[in-house]
Amino acid sequence: MALQFECRKIALKQDRTGYVLTLALHPDEIPEELLRDFVGSRYGCALVRIKDDESPTEYSNRVKQAGMLCRHPDFQRFMLDSYAANELPLTEDETAALLCRLCDIESRTQLNGDVNAKQLFDDLMLEYNEWKLHAF
């Protein structure tokens, strides 16, 4: 079972092993299990920034998402079924090139800055998610 609690980011620093994130937890929020675990325990983390109205902030690194998707066989199949004229499976590079063409960009790195490309990519993601619902 996952531990859930609210915390605040206090500090972020880097050492020779990576980044060290320091969080502050209110005494009423800290799970007892976390207090009992030994220093050095490993955790899988999922964090979401909370807005003033208590709703979650959506993060969307489209460049990273596009990179992962272009390597994923399901996304390659979606792109092949929906937009490619050939019968052969698409490679990662072919999928990336097709995605760039559909988003009217030269490189996936433009997905985080070009407003038009963001919208085209988001529309493509909606279409892909809809395709996944019916494809399997």
Polypeptide structure, described:
The protein has 2 domains: 1-59, no CATH class; 62-135, no CATH class. The chain is 43% helix and 11% strand. The chain has helices at 32-36, 62-71, 73-83, 92-102, 115-135, and strands at 8-15, 18-24. A two-stranded antiparallel ribbon has the order 1-2.
Q: How is this structure best summarized?
A:
The chain contains five helices and two strands.
Strand content: 5-15%
Q: Kindly state the percentage of residues in helix.
A: 40-55%
Mean pLDDT score:
89
- What topology, given as strand order, has the largest sheet? 1-2
Number of β-strand runs: 2
Q: How many strands, what sense, and barrel or not for the largest sheet?
A: 2 strands, antiparallel
SS-derived structural category: alpha+beta
SSE ordering: EEHHHHH
How many DSSP helices? 5
- Supply Rg: 20 Å
N- to C-terminal separation? 29 Å
Enumerate the spans where pLDDT stays under 50 for 5 or more consecutive residues: none
How many domains? The number is 2
The backbone outline, from C-alpha atoms, is elongated
Secondary-structure blueprint:
Layout: E1 8-15, E2 18-24, H1 32-36, H2 62-71, H3 73-83, H4 92-102, H5 115-135
Antiparallel strand pairs: 1-2
Helix pairs in contact: 2-4, 3-4
